[in-house]
Amino acid sequence: MDEMRTDLDYAAISKLLKEQLGLKGSPVAIKLAGSEKQIPEGMEEATGQMRHCQMVSLARNEGKSFYATAEKHNCMGGAWALGLRELTPSLKSGEFYFALGKYESWAACRRTIQNVPHLPSGDTYATLYAPLESATFSPHVVLIIAEPRSMLKLAQGILYRMGGRIYSEMSGIQSVCSDATATVYMSGKPNISLGCDGSRKFSGIADGEMVMGLPGELLAEIADSIPIVVGAPGSKK
Question: Which DSSP symbol is given to 109?
Fold first, then answer.
């Protein structure tokens, strides 16, 4: 099984994050399973086709836990970014995003797609989702959707021990699948995204919310720092 060596109390961490950050909904645990064996026994498969961002919303807002193979993902860009499918010809050529009016030329679309962080196609057998408090697997990524003030406290919690800077990587497309999931999984670093038109349209991310992905390995350290920075004398009350 692809599990972390350290056992964490995900319910306690989720409770802390919800209370300290004032989250609407749960942090979402995500795992990119490389084989069927990495799916916990008894976990149910998604009942219909959806986008990755919609699956995240089900775990965040409705408390649902499930897994989804490639056949359950109906967003080709998201499935590609997560390592479930090959890149489609229309995405590779630039045609898809050009048709949506997002870029001046096909070339601009291709440059963007060529720089989208993604897992190698076929590396992922299924994506797993659960509210963090009820996760029965070690998440590769914990995704948080929240308002800017909450993201500020998350950023301060990330920098609390070592300081430095946070560098965000995004392109205004594929925010939940690539920016907040694939990028974080591959880099081992938190990443914040402004969201994208697709995730806001299909998964209910509000206009005043942003998206951040946290590596599962850093979750405990970041959670420990959140009450400190929230309660610091220099924090806005």
Answer: H
Query: Which tens digit of pLDDT belongs to each residue from 56-109?
Result: 999 999 999 999 999 999 999 999 999 999 999 999 999 999 999 999 999 999
DSSP state of 105: S
Whether residue 7 lies inside any domain: the answer is no
Residue 235 lies in a domain: no
Q: How many angstroms separate the Cα of 108 from the Cα of each of 59, 70, 93, 198, 233?
A: 34, 28, 10, 19, 47
Asked if the structure places residue 88 within a domain, the reply is: yes
Q: What is the pTM of this model?
A: 0.96
Q: Are 60 and 26 in contact (CB under 8 A)?
A: yes
Buried b (16+ CB within 10 A) or exposed e, 146-158: beeebbebbbbbb
As for how many domains the chain has, the answer is 1
Residue 192 falls inside a structural domain: yes
Q: Categorize the per-residue pLDDT at 237 as very low, low, confident or very high, splitting at 50, 70 and 90.
A: confident
* Helix-strand-coil split of the chain, %, nearest 5: 45, 15, 40
The answer to whether 10 and 42 are in contact (CB under 8 A) is no
Q: Which helix (H) or strand (E) holds 110?
A: helix 106-114
Q: 39-68 b/e with 16+ CB inside 10 Å = b? A: bbeebeebeeebbbbbbbbbbbbeebbbbb
Structural domain range at position 113: 15-230
Helices 148-159 and 10-21: crossing angle, nearest 10°?
Answer: 120
d(CA 221, CA 91): 38
Task: Confirm if 143 and 180 have CB atoms less than 8 A apart.
Answer: yes
